[in-house]
Amino acid sequence: MRLSPRHPRYASLRVRGQLARAHASGLVVPEGLIAHGRGEAFDYFLGERTTPSARAAERVAAEWLLAAEHPVVSVNGNVAAIASGEVARLVRAIPHLEVEVNLFHRTGTRARQVASALRAGGVAHVIGVRATARIPGLPSDRARVDRRGIYVADVCLVPLEDGDRAEALRDLGKRVISVDLNPLSRTSQSADLPIVDEVRRALREIARAAERRKRSAAPFAFVPFDRYAALGDALATIDRGLTRAAARRRRPPRRPRAGRRPAPGTPGRSRRTP
Amino acid sequence: MRLSPRHPRYASLRVRGQLARAHASGLVVPEGLIAHGRGEAFDYFLGERTTPSARAAERVAAEWLLAAEHPVVSVNGNVAAIASGEVARLVRAIPHLEVEVNLFHRTGTRARQVASALRAGGVAHVIGVRATARIPGLPSDRARVDRRGIYVADVCLVPLEDGDRAEALRDLGKRVISVDLNPLSRTSQSADLPIVDEVRRALREIARAAERRKRSAAPFAFVPFDRYAALGDALATIDRGLTRAAARRRRPPRRPRAGRRPAPGTPGRSRRTP
Fold first, then answer.
1. Residue B17, H or E segment
2. Which of B61, B77, B125, B274 is 20 to 30 A from A150 via CA?
3. Would the CB atoms of A189 and B249 count as touching at under 8 Å?
4. How confident is the model at residue A106, as a pLDDT?
5. Does any domain span residue B179?
6. Which of B152, B153, B269 sits opposite A172 (nearest CB)?
7. Rg value, chain A, Cα
8. Which of A270, A272, A273 to mutate to test the interface with B (most CBs of B within 10 A)?
9. In this complex, is the C-beta atom of A16 within 8 Å of any C-beta atom belonging to chain B?
10. What residues in B contact A162, CB-CB < 8 Å?
11. Which residue in A has a C-alpha nearest to residue B156's C-alpha?
12. How close does chain B come to A118, measured CA to CA in Å?
């Protein structure tokens, strides 16, 4: 099916198409497609744009990543499929940021696919294709990380991360910056700095904020962040989005039905309620 | 990954597993997995149970299907994958209900797969494997129906239907009963009788209501249904669910971090904000 750029859902349908193709190649797993759908529902009520609160969080994220000794961004199949270019831009803005392949459903093939999607997006250096260490507190297949990356990181940027992993990283004393559209997910709830925004928008905004920040002479610092306020803002925005959508659709316009009469050979019609 | 029945998300994860397997066989398309994820987000806020308002709508749906001269339930890949047994039960309760294969992304193979999933679920008679008619007002590939089914139906039960098709059926003067977890979707908005409930719960409840209803001697009738009230109720429930979830998680319990000290060889930790 061809898609017109004037379709009201063009952007969203295009990303769906990207994911479906990435799925056909094995890069994205079925669970990743379902997770994307959940995110879509939240983004719809967020208005499909970066909220002022998310933008503020993205600025702090840029500051933390610049302040970090060993920052790592962890990339899974969904992120590689739709946001490899954004990861590349982020690395250009924050050159000491390591990019690590991180798969919930890990196979050697998928790890290599994530790495090559990232390279195609412009990321020169990718680690984690072979896992060389384990983080404690997780089932063995999901504990595998790169000894040069997440294992020694002080700040982990984890877009679209699984809740158990986000918690395990935080329990290790690492600062966790999550990107997740659901402010109620365990990932958002356990992160030190939860960003409630779509992953491409969020990575672009963090990169922009880092580029701006580097122009100032002030030393980078782990400035405090009020995670409760951020999550509360996101929920309030979703709530308003829901109320607004409901009001807008209370009396939806309908195409007229009265003029139509069944012509000979017309498909069946229902008797109307008297 | 093995799944414990005691996992808090067991039911939801089991359905995800069913869909992933059905997807591997080609029965469910990638877009179907994404759509399922969107539904999950809505169901979460509905409390993952049938609301009193949905139950009332399911009772009216049973009445309409019993009153119909030619009722048809249209079944796509997702419905066949997770609710074939429920469709079979519905047909036992309403024996003149035709079951028609209805695919947005139609191929002969997928149509046959839907039919065999339905047969495996206990549905003896399935139509629509070969499309023999078209409904007006839709792109040709999505207009294809069975001349003995949707084409002549007076009442169409369309679980998980695409918005364009739901509107086209309604414009033909058919009574449309939708099952869709999103009360704001075009399908829910255009249906004469929108049921905002999970498909398996909805079909089970319609079947139960039909079984009860048949014990009464009163003639079946197209009793009126207030679709605006039903959609408003669903939105109000989602809104309350959101507020409740937000309140519950305002101060999430966290595993203690204080006692942990980095032992020799322990992965990197972050300097904390003073």
1. helix B10-24
2. B274
3. yes
4. 87
5. yes
6. B269
7. 22
8. A270
9. yes
10. none
11. A270
12. 22
In chain A, beta strands by DSSP E = 71-75, 98-101, 133-134, 144-145, 155-159, 175-179, 193-195
Checking if the pLDDT of B34 tops 60, the result is yes
- Domain with A168, as residue range(s), is 52-233
Please indicate if any CB of chain A lies within 8 Å of the CB of B130. Answer: no
SS3 B203: helix
pTM of the predicted structure, to 2 decimals: 0.85
Indicate whether B274 belongs to any domain. no
Q: Which of residues 82-121 of B touch A (CB under 8 A)?
A: none
User: Using one digit for the tens of pLDDT, what is the confidence trace for A221-238?
Assistant: 999 999 999 999 999 998
Interface contact A222-B250, CB threshold 8 A = no
The answer for A 150-209 residues in CB contact with B (under 8 A) is: 150-155, 167, 170-175, 182, 184, 189-190
Q: Taking residues B66-92, what's their average pLDDT?
A: 97
Q: Which residues of A touch B272 (CB under 8 A)?
A: 222
Tokens of residue A125, six digits:
């250096």
Which residues, including other chains, have CB under 8 Å from residue B93's CB and lie 6 or more apart?
A: B62, B206, B207, B208, B210, B211, B214
Answer yes or no: do B238 and A242 touch at CB < 8 A.
yes
Look at A262-271, B104-113, B156-165, B172-181 and tell me which has the smallest mean pLDDT: A262-271
In total, how many domains does chain A have?
1
Residue A248 resides in a domain: no
Which of A17-26, A245-254, B132-141, B243-252 is predicted with the least confidence, judged by mean pLDDT?
A: A245-254
Q: Is the dihedral angle over the CA atoms A211, A212, A216, A219 positive or is it negative? A: negative
Alpha-carbon distance B127 to B266, whole Å?
63
B245 is a domain residue = no
Q: Is the pLDDT of residue B28 over 90?
A: yes
Tokens matching residue A259: 């003029």
CATH code of the domain in which A103 resides: 3.40.50.12640
pLDDT in tens, B84-94: 999 999 999 99
Smallest CA-to-CA distance from A63 within A212, A228, A174 is with: A212
Give chain B positions within 8 Å (CB) of A171. 255, 257, 260
Neighboring chain B residues of A190 at a CB cutoff of 8 Å = 252, 254
**Chain A nearest C-alpha distance from B208 (Å):** 24
